[in-house]
Amino acid sequence: MKILLTGATGYIGKRLLPALIEKGYTVICCVRDRNRFYVPSSIQALIEVIEVDFLKKETLINIPQDIDAAYYLMHSMSTTSNYQELEERAAKNFREAVKKSAIKQVIYLSGIINETTLSKHLTSRKIVEETLAQGTYHLTTLRAGIIIGSGSASFEIIRDLVEKLPVMVAPKWLHTKCQPIGIRDVIDFLMKSLFHKETYDKNFDIGGPDILTYKQMLLGFAKARGLQRKIFIVPVMTPRLSSYWLYFVTSTSYKLAIALVNSMKVEVICRNHNINKIVGVVPADYQTTLSRTFRKIEANQIISSWKDSLISGRFNFKLSDFVKVPTYGCFTDKRVRKVKNKSNCLGRIWSIGGDKGWYYATRLWKIRGFLDKCVGGVGLRRGRTQPDQVTMGDAIDFWRVLYANKDEGRLLLFAEMKLPGEAWLEFKIEEDTLYQTATFRPKGVLGRLYWYSVLPFHEIVFKGMINKLVE
After folding, report:
1. Which long-range contacts (CB under 8 A, 24 or more apart) does 248-251 make?
2. Of the candidates 129, 130, 136, 72, which has an alpha carbon nearest to the alpha carbon of residue 100?
3. Does CATH number 3.40.50.720 belong to domain 2-307?
4. I want to staple 279 with a disulfide (CB 3.0 to 4.6 A). Which of 49, 192, 260, 422 is the partner?
């Protein structure tokens, strides 16, 4: 049977895909950019990848008509301020695109909606659900609150707050109650609802057994990590100040911080647990979920991370549009060194950024990241998902991976920091020589002034970096 998987490059989609394949389904993966969807050779014969943008009707003809079910996993709350309109339009286009297919069921992962006054984010989820419900198929909606798992936005924010701040002066929404659920249980619910007739044309809340305030979640995390933390609640922190607080302390983007703060003022508690009995899933408690997550991180088994989504950065583009580095009107810093051990050199290149850093002038890199964050950029806070693996589309600090081929010995990065222009950083090994090239395409006079102002630092940073890479 054929399953259409939208959001295949997203946090949930990447984890659902192997589960579907394991059950023997043929999966049609919908992606906007085929170049940023890495498919292991072991499963290439079991999936089909199609390029579809549900905001562009002309691309919808790529959806096959012989699909049996679909997962709707698309969200865009941190890409733009008018995401509500875009999400509704995408849902309508999806509904119309599958109308003539053989589809029997659509499963939509939404947010828990149990208050009359909803945030913009949760209102958008409700509108999407209502839009999808008008289709000719059976709709199953699973509503989740906080999802805990390695690489999830919620988990990363909690980890940043607890591990960075021994004492927190926090806004009053930390008293808001929620019902967290582990990513493993979310995938179980998604899988076991597929073709389950008792779930047709219904919506269900899914959550773990614990009802906790956000403060209790933070302190529970601290307990699991063996950390002593103090949290003081103040009643005067406005939503804007709360957003700045999240943005500067955690790895979240500012737009996502705004959406999260507005949502965190609303309680997200499950109405009942009927779905548990229907599909036979017993979700783990919060502490068990944290323990599972820590084990995955320690074993470097993070399958997906929200940071690798394009919405975690500054741009929303097709990677292929930037893979060819321009030359006309550009400034370049090109350095060449002989490589004594190609394997060691490639290992260092493929481990660059994140906890390893940039090998030289670490303090200067941190200062640049801090300055970027001060003007609304991504800074260095995203790090990287895997310590020594790189795939196209990954985030590495304030860079985005445009191309990564270890056999070719080429890694190409595109800057997502705030710049008066566009910047690329390329590493390429040919025979026994490493070529390291920084390219900057300025925008106007300000861009040219920027290049010349940082030129003295290039001699320190880029020279030191290439020397370390070839050691």
Report:
1. 248/373, 249/160, 249/161, 249/164, 249/165, 250/156, 250/157, 250/160, 250/161, 250/381, 251/156, 251/157, 251/160, 251/307, 251/381, 251/382, 251/383
2. 136
3. yes
4. 192
DSSP letters spanning 264-277: HTS-B--S--HHHH
Burial class (CB in 10 A: 0-12, 13-18, 19+), 384: buried
Q: Rounded distance, CA 185 to CA 235, Å?
A: 35
In the chain, where the domains are located: 2-307, 313-469
CA–CA separation, 124 and 126 (whole Å): 5
pTM, rounded to two decimals: 0.72
Average pLDDT, the chain: 84
The tens digit of pLDDT for each residue in 248-292 reads 666 666 666 666 666 667 788 898 889 999 999 999 999 999 988
Write the pLDDT tens digit of every residue in 404-417. 888 889 999 988 88
Q: Domain 313-469 in CATH: superfamily?
A: START domain (3.30.530.20)
